[in-house]
Amino acid sequence: MKVGLGLPNADKSLLDGRLLVEIARRAEALGFSTLGTIGRVAYPSFEEMVTLAAAAGATERIGLMTDILLATTREPVLLAKQAATLDQLSGGRFVLGIGAGGREDDFTVTGSGFHDRGKRLDAALDLVHRAWRGEPVPGTSQPVTPRPVNGHSVPIAFGGYSAPVIRRVVKYGVGYTLGGGPPEALAGMMQRVSAAWKEAGREGKPRFWALAYFVLGDEVAAEAEQNLTAYYGDYGPRVWGGTVKSAADAKERVKGFEAIGCDELILFMAAPAVEQAERLAEAVL
């Protein structure tokens, strides 16, 4: 199983965005497989696609993934253009992890409908794939995006737990990403997604990712807890309770996801510092 590093782009204690680029460079040198981002709109986080574009320019081999991006808060054609551009700039290293979202304020601030977000996501997925294939979209007969590196689409992973999520993985995706929780939670989704994938006659196998948070060192634990509580609100204490807080915990978390057949675990730093990446690498790589 691969182990990726989640950038602290949503940590409130991150005051200088250039640190994200520094961490990205160090993560590649340490041997992490992927750089992940997470994000909302109604929150002072660093925007995910721009962050990964900066990381792409500062690295050569490491993968890049939004884990996840709220696709239903964005205009679909512009999202398709941005994703295809990042795919090209990175030489095909980008995976677009997306979800429908669940916090109404993210939709209010963007003027997007909240209660019809699932239907809008389905319509958007059709539109972005048409754009990536170079087909006309409403308003023009010309292509509107660069062609993805693989010639047909930017790889998409979906997050969430509902039946429509599984349908979207099978129709449009390369796999599923678990946005937090124990290995058992991913194991259940792996069974459901794999069964639907096989029933639909898709070739190969879906890929599976999982997300977890970590902080290593008592001196930054309070900062990490504040970051997670601020971002997750009422869910903050639960997220903090499941956060990896020692090298031994990190090893056990990796071992647990590896045992169920997860393809890649992305561990997000809850306190922004290059040293956090180095401590994690020493524990699990």
Structure description:
This protein has 285 residues and is α/β, with parallel strands linked by helices. It has eleven helices and eight strands. Helix content is 45%, strand content 15%. It has an eight-stranded parallel beta barrel with strand order 1-2-3-4-5-6-7-8, surrounded by seven helices. The N and C termini lie close together (11 Å). The mean pLDDT is 97.
Question: Layout of helices and strands, plus pairs?
Answer:
Layout (H helix, E strand, L loop, with lengths): L1 E5 L11 H13 L3 E4 L10 H11 L4 E8 L5 H14 L4 E6 L4 H5 L8 H16 L23 E3 L4 H10 L2 E4 L4 H17 L7 E8 L6 H12 L3 H6 L5 H13 L4 E6 L4 H11 L1
Parallel strand pairs: 1-2, 1-8, 2-3, 3-4, 4-5, 5-6, 6-7, 7-8
Shape: globular
Number of discrete helical segments? 11
> What letter string, H or E per element, gives the SSE order?
EHEHEHEHHEHEHEHHHEH
Named at the architecture level, the CATH assignment is Alpha-Beta Barrel
Q: What fraction strand?
A: 15-25%
Q: CATH class, please?
A: Alpha Beta
Sheet/helix structural class: alpha/beta
| Average residue pLDDT | 97
Summarize the structure.
The chain is of the alpha/beta class. The chain has eleven helices and eight strands. The radius of gyration is 18 Å and the shape is globular.
Describe the structure using short key phrases.
15% strand; alpha/beta; 285 residues; TIM Barrel; eight-stranded parallel barrel; single chain
